[in-house]
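Q: How would the structure tokens look for this protein?
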Amino acid sequence: MLSVVADVGGTNIRLSVCDLETGELTKLREFACAEFITLDAALVQYFSTLQGEVKHLCIGIACPVENDHVVMTNLSWEFSKKSLKEKLKLESLYVINDYTAISLAVPQQFSLK
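A: Here is the predicted structure in token form.
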């Protein structure tokens, strides 16, 4: 069972498998968003490269994320969190604003030094 984190911007999407015990990131891949019509197409492409089933996903994305329907402001992608979770057969899906993701990472960065 795998956990994946994604950083979604207007130009690129970066994805990695995250070890929930250690926080270690592995299997980092970067794709140009322009290569995909939808976010789920990019996710399915990445998931197909992994050995194992992805059950947990956290997406940091550059747009408002308060509602179920997420619409990117600098890319034509939009999606329903509920539908994405069902389509990808996830046990958990977290969609957070990219600035929230950065602020959550700051304490981790300082603890590594």
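The chain has one domain: 2-111.

Strands lie at 2-8, 12-18, 25-32, 54-61, 69-71, 78-80, 92-97.

Upvote if useful.
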